[in-house]
Design a protein that fits this description.
The complex is a heterodimer of chains A (about 240) and B (about 270). Chain A has about 240 residues and is of the alpha+beta class. Helices cover about 25% and strands about 30% of the residues of chain A. Chain A has five helices and nine strands. Chain A has a five-stranded mixed beta sheet with strand order 1-2-3-5-4. In chain A, helix 1 packs across helix 2. By secondary structure, chain B is an alpha+beta fold. Chain B has one domain: Ribosomal Protein S5, domain 2 (2-Layer Sandwich). Chain B is built from four helices and 13 strands. In chain B, the strands form three sheets. In chain B, strands 1, 2, 3, 4, 5, 6 and 13 form a seven-stranded mixed beta sheet that branches. A four-stranded antiparallel beta sheet of chain B has the order 10-9-11-12, with helices on both faces. Chain B is elongated and about 65 Å long. The chains are: A alpha+beta (about 240), B alpha+beta (about 270). The interface between A and B is medium-sized, with 31 and 36 residues.
Chain lengths: ~240, ~270
């Protein structure tokens, strides 16, 4: 049967319910929580702070480091072994690539800004949720940035191009599935993360990028609202 | 690990304040911060619990798997307790393999659950010598403002109480559907009593922890005060009187923790 209606009744360009909150980890210089459906990411930013060992120091600007990590109990099925995996290292890399072009650390030579992203619960779309949380945490920490980053996945199930696939859709067996996480600088529309797995046509990629725009805008607004609330007494 | 700098005048301040029966944050020596227990907070875990102790936040989740029993105990399953002190939760924690603090934390919680008989390992058996349930209990610190030990054990026990077996079809686990509850026989809780100078106090803050000279973590099973685990930490000795005092104090305080656990709200799932 063709996948023309989503199993949870969402429209093709509709995300799952989103929650965004800032200031959730008191010890951190900046922190945020981003939840989309059952996928929940926490991000904490420490820094700019001293970077050790010293040979890693960059005297021309501060260093940005990103760590994506799934907690052992956060996944469907087997326990996730703690510690870095090939998968988590790759996601850390592409996350870093999202933020490197927009943070300006020239004023903090020799220091490091560490961004820790922890997934407490995952139901697909975890790297996008992590990027959304990290972006808010960086802003909350007061790191100079050109823009926030908003991310959501696009893709297709069968012939339907849609956004924000959940685990059920990603694992849909009767149809071809492709999943394409995208992160965008909302002010310019520039794309800073683009990955895809599955088979998809050029037209479908274009369509997916197009229908992503509205949800990205919605996520951007939620991120900004959460940040504003944290400075106007809405902070928990 | 980078240590919070030990400051002599701050130590003197802590000691002075403790002489008045109060802490520098104006809590009494035997007073815990506000405790909040939330159960079932993670959709993908078989059981989960978030404990908020003042500004300390600890998350525990359980995963269940089927494995071959140990050859010397063909009729029992087992548990594994692991703790991660996430670098997210404190500037003192760094990425990398588990340090001694997280290993000690996990082992003391493991001991409380294992020796306290929280789970009857025999009931985890599925097929003699072939298959048994293994319970993985993972504890992570989300924000460390001190006393991770007590929060971790409370969270682990909470997560166990909230754990359901996934269904099994033709020997394959169906993690999407859960059936009966994991049977919990006892509910161990840890209370850590700390010593600075000749003062004993509970629920230390992160700011106080570098000044603690000795601590005694006490695993308590019930309101009668059955003890199921002990761990002395720190390099300063305790006198016998201090240990007796610590045990009494811990049993008293464990009732408070137990009340918070009982009052824990269950989320979705």
């Amino acid at each position: 049967m063709a996948y023309t209606k989503r199993h949870d009744g969402r429209k093709m360009d509709e995300t799952r319910p989103v929650e965004a909150e800032v200031g959730v980890i008191k010890n951190a210089d900046g922190s945020a929580r981003f939840k989309i459906g059952d996928t929940e990411a926490y991000a904490a930013v420490y820094g700019p702070r001293e970077l050790y060992p010293s040979f890693l120091k960059n005297p021309s600007q501060g260093t940005l480091r990103c760590y994506y990590n799934m907690l052992p109990f956060s996944g469907m099925g087997n326990r996730v072994r703690p510690g870095p995996s090939r998968r988590s290292k790759e996601i850390s890399l592409v996350t870093h690539n999202c933020f490197q072009p927009i943070v300006d650390l020239r004023a903090f030579p020799n220091t490091v800004v560490d961004v820790y992203i922890e997934l407490t619960d995952t139901d697909a779309g975890s790297r996008c949720a992590g990027i959304c949380a990290a972006s808010m945490a960086l802003a909350h920490a007061g790191v100079p940035m050109k823009d926030l980053v908003s991310a959501v996945s696009g893709g297709k199930v069968g012939k339907s191009v849609l956004v924000d696939l959940d685990y059920k859709e990603e694992a849909y067996e009767n149809e071809e599935v492709s999943d394409m996480p995208v992160a965008v600088l909302p002010r310019t529309g520039e794309i800073v993360l683009l990955q895809m797995d599955g088979k998809i046509s050029v037209d479908e990629i274009k369509k997916a990028l197009k229908i992503l725009k509205k949800p990205i805008e919605k996520i951007y607004e939620l991120q900004k609202t959460a940040l504003k609330n944290s400075f106007t007494g809405g902070e928990k | 690990m980078t240590r919070t700098n030990v400051n002599k005048s701050f130590r003197a301040h802590l000691l002075n304040k403790l002489q008045t029966d109060y802490r520098f944050d104006n809590r009494k020596k035997e007073e815990y911060r506000d405790i909040k227990v939330e159960l079932g907070v993670i959709s993908k875990a078989e059981g989960s619990c978030r404990v908020t102790l003042g500004d300390t936040i600890v998350l525990a989740g359980t995963k269940l798997g089927i494995e071959r029993p140990y050859p010397d105990r063909p009729d029992t399953g087992s548990i594994t307790v692991n703790a991660e002190l996430l670098p997210m939760s404190s500037p003192d924690f760094e990425s990398g393999p588990p340090g001694i603090q997280s290993i000690e934390l996990a082992r003391v919680v493991d001991r409380s659950i294992r020796e306290g008989g929280a789970i009857d390992f025999k009931k985890l058996s599925i097929e003699h010598g072939e298959k048994a349930w293994f319970v993985f209990i993972d504890i992570v610190s989300m924000n460390n403002d001190g006393n991770l030990m007590d929060a971790a054990c409370l969270a682990a026990t909470g997560a166990l109480l909230n754990t359901k077996y996934p269904n099994v079809k033709d020997g394959i686990i169906d993690y999407k559907n859960h059936g009966k509850d994991l049977e919990i026989e006892a509910q161990p809780l840890l209370v850590t009593v700390n010593k600075i100078g000749d003062s004993l106090f509970v629920d230390a803050l992160r700011a106080e922890e570098p000044y603690i000279e000795a601590r005694l973590s006490i695993g308590i099973l019930d309101d009668k005060g059955t003890i199921c685990a002990l761990q002395k930490g720190g390099t300063t000795p305790f006198t016998e009187e201090e240990i007796a005092k610590a045990l009494d104090l811990a049993i008293l305080k464990s009732k408070e923790l137990r009340k918070a656990l009982k009052g824990g709200k269950t989320g979705k799932k």
